């Protein structure tokens, strides 16, 4: 197939497929958490987020549940136990909240464009030593660096 034909088909598909947008007005909104103060979030994480928060994040991002579990370092068998218990462990909850925060900020960077945010999060960035933002966000220090990069991009500082 020729390149121009491929480009035309891609553009036609983009016109037909609706652009999925989302707006997250509070931390944890992509997890299905209602507007909460910081101390409420800390309490929820300490208690362990409900398993449903993991499912909600999977739905919001379009990532399979198994992929989200891998991102927050939950092995398959442990994931099955968490599903049965209905609750994540505090450390797993904190990692899920961290990843969701980075995702929410990336969606904001792309003015609600979920697909664009996911593509940006999945691709390596020079400013992150050629690692993807999702890779970096697996660790607290990396997540802060991704959030700093998003802030710089929002202010027009292309690094």
Strands, helices and their partners?
Blueprint lengths: L2 H14 L21 H10 L3 H11 L3 H7 L4 H10 L4 H20 L4 H9 L10 H4 L3 H15 L5
Helix pairs in contact: 2-6, 3-4, 6-7, 6-9
Brief account:
The protein has 159 residues and is mainly α. Helix content is 63%, strand content 0%. The chain has one domain (21-154).
Report on the biggest sheet. Answer: none
Amino-to-carboxy terminus distance: 37 Å
SSE topology string? HHHHHHHHH
Measured as a percent range, the helix fraction is: 55-70%
> Would you report the number of β strands?
0
**Mean of all residue-level pLDDT scores:** 89
The shape is globular
Q: Give the amount of beta strand, in percent.
A: under 5%
What is the radius of gyration?
Answer: 17 Å
What is the count of distinct domains?
A: 1
Give the low-confidence spans: none
Number of helices: 9
- Which structural class matches the secondary elements? mainly alpha
Describe what you observe in this structure.
It is built from nine helices and no strands. By secondary structure, it is an all-alpha fold. The longest helix is centred in the middle third of the chain and has 20 residues. It is globular, with a radius of gyration of 17 Å. The mean pLDDT is 89.
Main attributes of the structure:
9 helices, globular, 0% strand, mainly alpha, 159 residues
